[in-house]
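Figure 3 (text version): structure tokens given as input.
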């Protein structure tokens, strides 16, 4: 009797330990990702969206804040209809930076939690190890390196994923809900917002849902509130997808953009998780009779929605021309399909192997997250010092060691993003925010001893050259050339070309 009680207690403790480990991993990610948003300076599109409503002197941007509706309408007409961009511009313009950072840190961890929840692994017996591994895949193998710790990109991808998956979770919870007026209004609003967030997230999911509902004749099995939410989600999806700005982009309106690679290479680079999952499933169908027998049942379940969504979401990857973030939603949907498949097939591996793999995934993910933050703090301090020196400089020139964390240290997985001197438009937007005509120019500290009234050329140990002579074609091919003025004279700053980060355009 005592042995039986002990065995039962051990089993319960084992289950609790597995899900405590999952919760602790999500907690570590929540803290470290929030810190990453706090220490990552504004970058890229952040400056453009922040300048809509404010500059360094207050709410004196291109639009007064109360005209947000006018800006959003023009954005819908000329750029895209993504709610993610509307939210980014409002948060950047109206709220302190830490508010957006906390929201985005929470959204980042919510995406991983919702993947395992919708995949059926959350507190499911014997699947705690798999849940930890799925969260680790999300944390390590998704393209966080593609500027995902900047505000605008974070709203467009990790935040959008959390909103869309959260809407699906809410939809599932409404299966027996009564249709009161207030509840219906709130559900319809949630559906429209989720559908509008990003067409590459909502349209593939809508395609999967429509196919599954039609094939399985599920419409009448939904509660009235669920049906209203689904219609609202479809309306929001169409509102975003059919915006004139998106149609113009799809028709080739951005002629200046050169695709990073050919369509198939884009898919391989941007959505490898999707390809590996469906390759594994295809092989299983070929070699396993049980998998073939289970095929019909699996694709009669909601797993069908996630499979179609994952495959359909590859189309924007191929058409968009961008390596990295374009595969975000396809890979997330593929992970949920994988969870559904494993549970449906009741695939089991030896417990010792599963626990070992989960422990390794937990340790690697936690260590990578913490180590990146530690490195990021030093980076933040160096960038903040340069920015302060630029604001105080009468001619925009700063004497400091240049900052380049874009390709290292290796353990950061290139998650640290920042302005570099060759990024003209980012530097111009940065200068505009501070009402400066001079773009920031970072010269080596040794250059502070130069007499710019008499010097014609100076070379530094880092390979940087300051010269008054027009650079030759050979120099322009091998180096980044930045013109600047000092003491009334025109100079050229020649910097050895840096190594490009993954997916850098």
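Below: residues designed for each position.
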């Amino acid at each position: 009797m005592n042995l039986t009680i002990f065995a039962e207690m051990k089993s319960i403790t084992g289950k609790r330990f597995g899900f405590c480990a999952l919760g602790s991993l999500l907690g570590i990610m929540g803290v470290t990702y929030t810190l990453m948003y706090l220490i990552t300076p504004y970058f890229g599109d952040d400056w453009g969206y922040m300048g809509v409503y404010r500059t360094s002197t207050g709410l004196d941007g291109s639009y007064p804040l109360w005209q947000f509706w006018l800006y959003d309408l023009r954005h819908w007409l000329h750029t895209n209809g993504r709610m993610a961009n509307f939210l980014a511009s409002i948060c950047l313009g109206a709220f302190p930076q830490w508010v957006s950072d906390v929201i985005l840190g929470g959204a980042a961890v919510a995406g991983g939690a919702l993947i395992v929840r919708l995949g059926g692994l959350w507190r499911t017996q014997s699947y705690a190890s798999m849940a930890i591994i799925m969260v680790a895949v999300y944390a390590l193998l998704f393209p966080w390196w593609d500027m995902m710790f900047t505000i605008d990109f974070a709203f467009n991808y990790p935040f959008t994923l959390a909103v869309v998956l959260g809407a699906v979770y809410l939809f599932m919870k409404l299966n027996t809900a009564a249709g009161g007026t207030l509840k219906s209004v709130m559900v319809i609003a949630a559906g429209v917002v989720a559908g509008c967030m990003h067409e590459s997230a909502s349209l593939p999911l809508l395609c999967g849902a429509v196919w599954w509902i039609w094939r399985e004749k599920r419409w009448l099995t939904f509660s009235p509130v669920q049906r209203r939410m689904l219609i609202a989600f479809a309306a929001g999806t169409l509102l975003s997808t059919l915006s004139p700005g998106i149609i113009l982009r799809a028709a080739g309106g951005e002629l200046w953009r050169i695709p990073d690679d050919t369509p198939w290479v884009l898919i391989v680079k941007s959505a490898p998780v999707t390809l590996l999952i469906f390759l594994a499933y295809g092989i299983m169908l070929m070699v396993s009779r049980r998998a073939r027998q289970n095929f019909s049942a699996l694709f009669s379940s909601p797993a069908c929605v996630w499979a179609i969504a994952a495959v359909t979401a590859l189309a924007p990857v191929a058409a968009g021309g961008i390596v990295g973030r374009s595969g975000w939603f396809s890979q997330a949907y593929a992970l949920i399909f994988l969870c559904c498949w494993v549970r449906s097939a009741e695939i089991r591996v030896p417990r010792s192997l599963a626990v070992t793999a989960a422990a390794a995934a937990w340790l690697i993910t936690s260590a990578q997250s913490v180590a990146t933050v530690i490195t990021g703090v030093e980076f933040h301090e160096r960038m903040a010092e340069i920015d302060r020196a630029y604001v105080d400089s009468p001619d925009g020139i700063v004497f400091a060691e240049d900052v380049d964390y874009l390709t290292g240290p290796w353990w950061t997985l290139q998650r640290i993003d920042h302005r570099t001197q060759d990024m003209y438009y980012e530097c111009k937007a940065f200068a505009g925010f501070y009402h400066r005509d001079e773009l920031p120019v970072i010269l080596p500290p040794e250059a502070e001893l130069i007499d710019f009234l008499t010097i014609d050329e100076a070379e530094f140990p880092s390979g940087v050259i300051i010269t008054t002579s027009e650079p030759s074609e050979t120099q322009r091919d091998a180096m980044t050339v930045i013109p600047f003025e000092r003491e009334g004279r025109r100079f050229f700053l020649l910097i050895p070309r840096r190594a490009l980060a993954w997916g850098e355009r």
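Residues 112 and 138 are 6 Å apart (CA to CA).
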